[in-house]
Structure formats: structure tokens, C-alpha cells
Specification:
Elements lengths: L9 H30 L8 H8 L4 E5 L2 E7 L7 E6 L5 E6 L3 H4 L8 H8 L4 E5 L4 E10 L3 E10 L4 E8 L7
Antiparallel strand pairs: 1-2, 2-3, 3-4, 5-6, 6-7, 7-8
Length: about 180
């Protein structure tokens, strides 16, 4: 008779702990790299080449009256999204972390999906509800000083915001 592996064996628990530690280290590393990259870029001085050298290929490029906006997304594992504006002169005009209460307050019923995406970047998750004919978009963010939150915008079949709200991030265990 063969013996089934014990799911809570010390070896398995150690593997799970190691995997969790690696994820945490990776998230801290990304956050640390972002901070270091941001510190090395000066508005009005850094060029688009400098930005791409520090942040890599953008998730998306948006046109705006101020120039091009490069989207650098940290979802779903991270809790920040960056929008970096490159002015007509090719210099970095602004670097913003966009997952903020001030930006969430700009999300209003009737807002088109494209405007929502330009404001907040790619969401961490999209969940369709076919019977309701709605889709929820979620962004993970940090409410100062350090509370993990989720901002949810619900879109209808016409890809317009119906409602939005912020709530504690249930995926993060409380200390």
C-alpha cells in the first residue's frame, strides 16, 4: 500500500514559506527599483530614452495635450501605477503615481472606459458578471500610511462606469 504525501509535512511547509518569502522579496525589489529609478529622473531634464532605460517598455502610450504619456503598470502584484509624461521637447514633464484617492474621486458614473484606463492604468483584475451585464475592474493600492486597499469601478455593457468604491484588500492578511 502506497502512502499519500502529507500536505502539511515539514518539507512542504518549508517550500511554501520559501515561495512566499520569494514573492515578498520580489515585491520589495520592484518597489525598491521604482524608488531608485524615480530618484534618478529629474523633470525637465530626463529624456524619453532616460525613462525607458530606467523603466523599460511602457504598458501603453497615451496621447495628451501635454505630450505622450507612458504607462508603467505594477498591477496585479504591486500597488502602484505610474504615468510619465514626455513633453513635445522630448523631456520628462511629469512622473505621477496615479492610484490615489484624488484620482479615484475623479471616477464618475458615465465615464468612458478609455478615460478610466488613461486615468488609472491597467487594472489588476477584470471580473465579468454576464447576468448583470457588468464588469468590475479592480486596482490594488495603498491608503496612507500603509493600509492595503482595492479600488473597484463597475462598467456596464456600453463600457461606461456605473459605480465605484474603495475597500480593504481582502487578499492581504491583517498583521
Amino acid at each position: 500500500m502506497s502512502k499519500l504525501p502529507n500536505r502539511s509535512s515539514p518539507g512542504r511547509l518549508a517550500t511554501r514559506a520559501c515561495t512566499a518569502a520569494l514573492w515578498v522579496a520580489a515585491l520589495i525589489g520592484v518597489a525598491g527599483c521604482d524608488r531608485q529609478n524615480i530618484d534618478q529622473l529629474e523633470e525637465g531634464v530626463a529624456t524619453e530614452s532616460d525613462v525607458r532605460a530606467r523603466f523599460g517598455q511602457p504598458e501603453n502610450i497615451w496621447s495628451s495635450p501635454a505630450g505622450q504619456v507612458l504607462e508603467y503598470n505594477r498591477q496585479p502584484q504591486g500597488q502602484k501605477n505610474y504615468m510619465i509624461t514626455i513633453g513635445p521637447d522630448g523631456k520628462m514633464a511629469a512622473l505621477r503615481q496615479v492610484l490615489t484617492p484624488e484620482n479615484f474621486a475623479k471616477v464618475r458614473p458615465g465615464m468612458p472606459m478609455e478615460d478610466l484606463r488613461k486615468l488609472l492604468g491597467r487594472p489588476a483584475r477584470k471580473t465579468p458578471y454576464a447576468l448583470k451585464k457588468e464588469t468590475e475592474w479592480e486596482w490594488r493600492w495603498v491608503q496612507p500610511p500603509n493600509t492595503s486597499m482595492v479600488f473597484v469601478a463597475t462598467l456596464d455593457d456600453d463600457q461606461r462606469v456605473v459605480r465605484s468604491a474603495s475597500m480593504p484588500d481582502r487578499a492581504v492578511e491583517a498583521p
